[in-house]
Amino acid sequence: MPQTTLPDYHFLYFAPPLGAEWFFDAARRYWERFRPTVLSDLSFLRFIPRGRSVIVTVVTRRDTVEQIGVELAQVRPDAYYDAVVQDLFADMKAVLNQRAERVWPFGVPLATAQPGPDNRLDPTPGPLISGSPVPTRAPSGFITQTPTPMPTAPVPTPDPGATTTGQEPIQPTPGPLIGG
Question: Which residues contact 21 (CB under 8 A, 6 or more apart)?
Answer without folding.
Answer: 89
